[in-house]
Each structure stands twice: as structure tokens, then as C-alpha cells.
Amino acid sequence: MAESNDAVSLDMEKIYLGGKEHFIQTGCGSVSVIVYGDQEKPALITYPDLALNHMSCFQGLFFCPEAASLLLHNFCIYHISPPGHELGAASIFPDDPAPSVDDLADQILEVLNFFGLGAVMCMGVTAGAYILSLFAMKYRERVLGLILVSPLCKSPSWTEWFYNKVMSNMLYFYGMCGLLKECLLQRYFSKEVRGSAEVPESDIVQACRKLLEERQGSNVFRFLQAINRRPDITEGLKSLRCRTLIFVGDSSPFHSEALHMTSKLDRRYSALVEVQACGSMVTEEQPHAMLIPMEYFFMGYGLYRPCHFSDSPRSPLSPSCISPELLSPESMGLKLKPIKTRVSLGQ
Predict the structure, then answer these.
(1) Residue 5: which of 80, 87, 81 has the closest Cα?
(2) Strands 270-275 and 334-337
(3) 8 Å CB contact between 123 and 67
(4) How far apart are CA 9 and CA 4, in angstroms?
(5) Cβ neighbours of residue 193 under 8 Å, at least 6 residues apart?
(6) CA distance 122 to 142
(7) Phi, psi for residue 270 in degrees, rounded to 5
(8) Inter-axis angle of helices 158-174 and 217-228, to 10 degrees?
């Protein structure tokens, strides 16, 4: 049954102009889902990276007027938080069994069934992209398409495994300490926005640092354990038939992982967007870079954004207004691979 949390719901209404939080009991614990928009529209579900929730992982994208217009005109948004990652979450009881990545993917199915949703569009970042990819492989009929940001698909390399073990130890003994937050910020953002002795860190990094401070270390520890024990799902990618759009920053620690994943997907249904001078969290660091690729992606589903929904003098979905120069690396900081995918999205 859904439970209400008035304090959090009010916060969401102030920030998201009507978003409402639901707590849904699933087979592996309670999960927070914030619903924003008209529930008669197609559903887009989001899943964030480690130690993040919708505020720290997706607000940059949804506060970008053109991207928000595109997404909210076409979808009702369901922001799913990993267990214990929602705003104001208390520590999960230590005796509760820690979920595996399969448990987390199955939890998404329970969320969809709770809301009576059929096939949905999915958007996930890094660890969240892995969970949604696994979900799409297990329940293919429930996924319309995947938008993956700096995704994972292989089991951890020795380097990542060791790095995750170090973070796990810090979480276990010290909680959300300063050093751990620095490790996470390096995971999310490029050096350009993290700053240096000469250059102050950007507002998005400062905001993310503050949001990390309220995370319960024991809850992050549980999610990190699941991700560090994840199996390789590369072989299963070949069976995916939903369209897939992958974004990755060229400064992301998971850049090679995204290239590997793209190489294993059916090229008829997938495209890669590399964003220059950007880390893993393209949704926060360069959300504008996601706009035009997403527009072409959604055009394959017959979705659109009318002119009057745009705050911009141009309508990005009007072909007469999309000049080829907009898709060049020089003007957009993008490399689209393969560029022709936008033409062959129809099945």
C-alpha cells in the first residue's frame, strides 16, 4: 500500500510544482517514488546513480526549460529512488536483508504494477542505468526504450572493485565522511566543474555535496554492495530490441564501459552521444547536450513538442529549424554515433 509523507510531499510540490511522493512496499523493502505530471500520459521512470536521488541526479535536466518541456509534454515522470536514498530517509534496519541487483530490478516491476503501468520509457545514470538495463533484459515487454547515461554492463574491473571496496570500508566505519564525498564527486563530475586551487568548484558540485551530506551511510553501503557484486550482462544486451540512447561524458570514469556497451547493442536500435568536457552525470553537468538527441530519439515513437511549449525562439523539433551545424561537435560539444540512427529508429 502507498503511504503518505506529507513533509516530503510538500517539499516536492514546492520544487516540482505538484510532484507527489509515494512509499511502496515491495518484496525487498519500501521504495520511494515521486510522480510528476499527468498519469494518463506514457510513463518515464528514472533511476539515479549511487548515493543519489532524483534531486541530485536529474534536477539539472528537469530544470533545463527545453528539456523539461520535451519530457513533461510527452510523459508522466516516475522518479524511483534506490532503497533509503530518498530525501529525508532514515537508516534501513541492519537486520533487513541487503538487496541484490536482481532484487532491485524486480522492485521496479513491483512499482510498475502498483501504478498499473504497462511498457515504460526508462532513464538511468551509471548504477541506475545498469539496474534499468537488467530490468529491460528480464522484462522486455515492459520497456519501450532506454536512455542510459554513463552506463555499466560488465562486472566490475579489478580497479573499480577495489575502489568500491575502499568506499565500502569508509561507509562502514565512518559513514558519509568528507573523503568519501570527494570520491563520489570524482565519480560524477569532470575536473572542470570540480574546481582546483585556482578555480572554485561549480554550483552543481556544491549543491550535490550538500545533498550527499544527508544520505545515510549504511543505506549507500547496501546499494554499493549490490553494484559491486553485479554480474556481467553483456551477452543479454544482444537480446534487447528496445531502442537505446546512450550518453557519456568523455571525462567519465565509465567512458570505456559505455563504448563497450554500445558495441554490443544492435546498431539498428541504438545510438551513442559522447559529450565533451563532461563527467559521468551529463544530466547535471551538461543537460542541454541531451536535448536534440532525445528529440530525435522520441520522434521515432511519434512523440513531439509543439512550438508553444518552448521558451526558445525556435522549436527544436521543427526540421526547418534544425540546421546541420547544430549537430556538429564544434557547436554542440557532441559526437553522435551513428548519426543515421535518428533516421532508422522506426522498426
Answers:
(1) 87
(2) antiparallel
(3) no
(4) 8
(5) 201, 202, 204, 205, 279, 285
(6) 10
(7) -140, 155
(8) 160
State residue 305's pLDDT score. Answer: 64
Domains of the chain in sequence order: 20-300 (3.40.50.1820)
Q: Are 252 and 284 in contact (CB under 8 A)?
A: no
Up-side HSE of residue 61: CA atoms within 13 Å toward CB? 25
Residue 253 CA to residue 280 CA, distance in Å, equals: 7
Give the pLDDT of residue 327.
36
Mean pLDDT, residues 218-222: 96
Burial readout 270-296 (b: 16 or more C-beta within 10 A, e: otherwise): bbbbbbeebbbbbbbbbbbbbbbbbbb
- Give the integer Cα–Cα distance in Å for 237 and 262: 9
What is the mean pLDDT of the segment spanning 337-345? 36
pLDDT band at 15 (very low <50, low <70, confident <90, very high): very low
SS3 338: coil
Q: Are 193 and 205 in contact (CB under 8 A)?
A: yes
This prediction's pTM: 0.85
